[in-house]
Amino acid sequence: MTKAELVVKIAEKAGMTKADAERCLNYFLDTVEETLVNEGKLTLTGFGTFQVDERKERVGRNPRTGEEIKIPACKVVKFRPGKLLKDAVK
């Protein structure tokens, strides 16, 4: 599903215009991003938890040449689904 398709579904379910639904979705995504940047963790009870995690620097290989390369440390966002989401997907 694309963002545009999600906007249409939200608009239909909430009985609002697509423009309003897109604005709401954008506000939600901005808030999630700000929370992860500032606090590092966001829990939506029943849905899941987004958490910023630190990856250590590591050594990898260039698949074409087999040459060793250094992969720098970085931050990544991880998602752990909540019980309700897990049960819904089963």
Automatic annotation (TrEMBL):
Q: Which GO terms describe its molecular function?
A: DNA binding; structural constituent of chromatin
Q: Which SUPFAM superfamilies match?
A: IHF-like DNA-binding proteins
Domain of life, per the record? Bacteria
Gene Ontology cellular component list:
cytosol
Q: Which UniProt keywords apply?
A: DNA condensation, DNA-binding
What is a biological process (GO) this protein takes part in? chromosome condensation
Q: Which family does it belong to?
A: Belongs to the bacterial histone-like protein family.
Q: Which PANTHER family match?
A: DNA-BINDING PROTEIN HU, DNA-BINDING PROTEIN HU-BETA
Q: What is this protein called?
A: Histone family protein DNA-binding protein
> Which species does the entry assign this protein to?
Maridesulfovibrio salexigens (strain ATCC 14822 / DSM 2638 / NCIMB 8403 / VKM B-1763) (Desulfovibrio salexigens)
Lineage from the top down? Bacteria, Pseudomonadati, Thermodesulfobacteriota, Desulfovibrionia, Desulfovibrionales
